[in-house]
UniProtKB/TrEMBL annotation, chains A, B:
This is Arginine biosynthesis bifunctional protein ArgJ, mitochondrial. The lineage of its organism: Eukaryota, Fungi, Dikarya, Ascomycota, Pezizomycotina. Its EC number is 2.3.1.35, 2.3.1.1. It catalyses: L-glutamate + acetyl-CoA = N-acetyl-L-glutamate + CoA + H(+); N(2)-acetyl-L-ornithine + L-glutamate = N-acetyl-L-glutamate + L-ornithine. Substrate binds at residues 194, 224, 235, 322, 461, 466. It comes from Pseudallescheria apiosperma. GO terms for cellular component: mitochondrial matrix. Pathway: Amino-acid biosynthesis; L-arginine biosynthesis; N(2)-acetyl-L-ornithine from L-glutamate: step 1/4; Amino-acid biosynthesis; L-arginine biosynthesis; L-ornithine and N-acetyl-L-glutamate from L-glutamate and N(2)-acetyl-L-ornithine (cyclic): step 1/1. The record marks 155-156 as: Involved in the stabilization of negative charge on the oxyanion by the formation of the oxyanion hole. The record marks 234-235 as: Cleavage.
Amino acid sequence: MASQVLLQTKLFRPGPAQLSGFIRRYSAPVANAIPAAKKKYVPTCGTYPQGFDASGIIVGVKPGNTTKPDVALISSHLPCSAAAVFTKNKFQAAPVTFSRDLLKKKSNAGIRSVLINSGCANAVTGKGGLEDAKLMAGAADKSLGSHEATVVMSTGVIGQRLPIQKIVDNVPTAFERLGSSHDHWLTCARAICTTDTFPKLRSRTFTLPSSGPSIEYRIAGMTKGAGMIHPNMATLLGVIATDAPVAPELMAPLLKHAVDRSFNSLTIDGDTSTNDTVAFLANGAAGGSDIAEADSPDYIALRDVLTDFAIDLAQLVVRDGEGATKFVTIRVAEAASEDAARRIASTIARSPLVKTALYGKDANWGRILCATGYSLISEPGHDVTPVPEIVPETTNVSFIPTDGSAELKLLVDGEPEDVDEARAAEILEMEDLEILVRLGTGKEEARYWTCDYSHEYITINGDYRT
Amino acid sequence: MASQVLLQTKLFRPGPAQLSGFIRRYSAPVANAIPAAKKKYVPTCGTYPQGFDASGIIVGVKPGNTTKPDVALISSHLPCSAAAVFTKNKFQAAPVTFSRDLLKKKSNAGIRSVLINSGCANAVTGKGGLEDAKLMAGAADKSLGSHEATVVMSTGVIGQRLPIQKIVDNVPTAFERLGSSHDHWLTCARAICTTDTFPKLRSRTFTLPSSGPSIEYRIAGMTKGAGMIHPNMATLLGVIATDAPVAPELMAPLLKHAVDRSFNSLTIDGDTSTNDTVAFLANGAAGGSDIAEADSPDYIALRDVLTDFAIDLAQLVVRDGEGATKFVTIRVAEAASEDAARRIASTIARSPLVKTALYGKDANWGRILCATGYSLISEPGHDVTPVPEIVPETTNVSFIPTDGSAELKLLVDGEPEDVDEARAAEILEMEDLEILVRLGTGKEEARYWTCDYSHEYITINGDYRT
C-alpha cells in the first residue's frame, strides 16, 4: 500500500526510498502495521476525560488516501476553557492564524471542538487558505449548533490548498462517529498522523488538593511528529483535554509552563514549522471547585500534572523520530543560567555529528564537547565574545546508563578519561541513553531529548514531499 | 588499504560502514585514488609564490598509517608577515592556543614556517598537549635556525596526545624534502587531509596597481575539510602564501575581510571545531613597494585578490562535503541588513530537511521557506519577537540554474507558483544549483555554500572517530 501511495504522489522519478529498497509508510500505519519495536508505546486502553468525545474518519485529503483516517475531531459536550501555543515561524499556516485569532476573540472561553486534518498543511496558501480554515471551523460549528467554538489544525504538504469541499462535506460524519471509548480516541490519534509510525496517545487520572480522593479527574492527549526530533518542518501537533474546571485566564500560563518543559525541549519553537500547535482544553465536566487563582494549591497541582503529562507526550515524538534507533536525553547541569543550559543542550541535541555518532554507537565525547564549545559563541562575522558560562577546566561529560548501572565518565574537569570502550559499547547498545554535561559554573540545569541520525532518516527525507 | 586502517583503529565492533558495504577512506587518497568526479578539482600544475617551499612526509601520526603523508611543512626563505583566523570554540586545541600567542608576541612579523600534522588534533590534551605544540614548533625553528618563527596546526582525533617524539624526529626530514615544484605543493596539500577525498590546492598570479605588469605576484594556498559543509567538528585548516610585500599590521584585516566572505560562508566560526585555523603569510620575495597603508590602491587590490582566492579555496571544501552529491549556493537578497541575510542563508544552508530534499532532487520550496521563517525567531522559552526582516507577502524563492537557462520561480510574493516539476527535476539533476531567496525588505544580500545530506554522510559520520 505504501508503495502505491508513493507512486501516486511521485510519478516523475524514482526516489532514494525505492533505490535503497526501504520504503517508509507516508501515512499513519493501520493498527497491525506498527513496527514491532514501537508497539509498546501504543496504549491498549485508557481513561478519558468526561464530556469529551473523539473520532477519526477517512476523507481522502490526499487524493490517493482511501485507507487512513485523515480528519480528527475532539469535541466537548460543555464549553471549554482553552489555550494554545503556536509556532513562531514567520510563515504561519492559515489554521494557525485562524485559531490564534479565535482564541483571542473568545478570551480563551467557549470552545467546544478541535478539528484537525492531516495530508495538507494549508500553509502558504494566501487568503484562500484562510477562507478554507474558516470554512472548516464553520462546518464544525454548524454540526455543534454553536458559533465560533472550533479550533482547527492542519498538517501535511505546504503550498497546496485543502480539498475543502470534501472536508466540509465530511464534517457531519466526523460528528456522527464521535465516541468516548479507547478505540475512538486511538482512531482520532491516528487521524492526525503523517510520517509517524505509530499513533501517540496518553491518558491518566489525577486528584486535586481541594477535592482530594472524592473526585477523580482525567486528562488525555495526543500528539504527532514532527518526524525529526528538531521538527523544523514536519508539523508537531498536540491536543490535551481534561475534565477539571479551570478559569479561562489560567489556561495560557498553565500550558506555557508545560510546553516550555516538554515540547519546547525538542526545540519545537526554536526550529519550528509553519503549523506547530499544541492546544489545551478544560471542560470542568468532573466537577469540583473552579481553579481560578494562579499559584493556588489546585493550580500548582494541575500545572505539575499537565507538565508531566506533556513530557510523556513529547517524548513519544522523539521515540518516533524519523529513522531513529535511539532515545537520548541531553542533560546540561551546573550551569550559570537555565538559558545557557538550554542553549547548550539544544546545540548538542541537534548536532549532526553527535547524532550520527550515536547511530554508529561511537562513544565520541569529542563531538559532544565540540558542540558544547560552539553553542554560545558569536555568529560568523561578529566579534569573539567571552562566554564565561563554559570553562574547559570545569567541564565534565558522562554517559548515564538507563539500566541503573554506574555512570561512565568520558571527560573529567576538562581532561579526557581513559575510556573503557567495551563498557561504552555496552551502554551505547541500549535504546535509551543520557548524556550528562556538567559545566561547573553554576547551579541551573536543562534537559533536551533527541534521537540519532540514521540512513533511514536520509531515505525518508530525501523522498518525502512535505 | 582503507579497510585495513579501519580495522586497526576500530577493532571492537563492526560499524555502519562495513554493514552497508560502503567504506570511505579515512585518510587522504593517493593521487590515483581520487574519485573520478572530483579529479577536475585537483590541479595538475601551478604557479607558486617565490621564496616559499613545501613538503609533505609520512610520519605515522596514526599508528596504522604507513602510506599517506601526514606532516606538512610550508617554509619561507625570508621572514614573513603573518596572520591567522582561529576557531571561536571554547575548547581550543593546543596548536590554536600556541599559534595565537606566537603571532601576538611576534606582532604578526618574523614568521618563517607553518608545520601541520593530520591524524591527531592535539585538542583537549591539557598542559601536556600545549607542551607538544611547543615541541613541534621548536623542532621546526631548530631546523630553520630561527627562534619563534613557526606556526603549528593539527587536525584529527580529539583527546589523544600527539606521538610527539615521532613528529619531532621527522621534522628535519620535512625540511630536507622541501621544494617549490607543483608536486611538492600537492604532496603538502595531501598531508593536511583527513576524510577529504581529494587534496585542495590553488595558485594564481596577480599584479598590483603600483607596479603594474612589471611585477608578477603569486599567491598559493591549500585547505582541508571540514568534511561537513558546516564543519562543526572535522577541522577546517587553510594556509595561504603570497610573495607580495605586506606590512605586518595589515595582515589581520586583509585576512579577516577574505575569511568573512569565504570560509565564514561555510559558517566556519559559527559552528566551529576545536582546531579551525586559516593562516596567511606574505614574504615580499617578489619585490615592489611595501603595502603599508590600509585602503591604498595596492591594499584594495590585494584584498580583492585574496578574497576571491579564499572563496575558491573555501568552495573546494564544499565540493568535498562528506557524501555530497551537490554544490548549492544559497543567496538571500533584498534583505534589510547583511547580518539578517547571512543568518537566513546560514539557516537554510544547514537545515537537514533542505539538505535531504536536495539529495532527493525534490523541488521542496516549502522546506526552504520554512527554514527562512524560523531563522530569525527567538529561542525557545523567550518571547515572540517581531522579525520585521521577513514579510511573507514580499518573499520570493527561485532556483537559478547554473547552465544559464531561465530562473525557475517557486514562490512569488508569498504565493506558490504552479511549478513545472519536469523543469524542476531537470535543474535538480545538475551538480550545481543556486537557491535564491528575495526578501523584498531591503537591499543587502549574503551568500552561503552548502551541499546535500546523503546516505554516505551517515555512513561516514556514524563510523569515524574524530
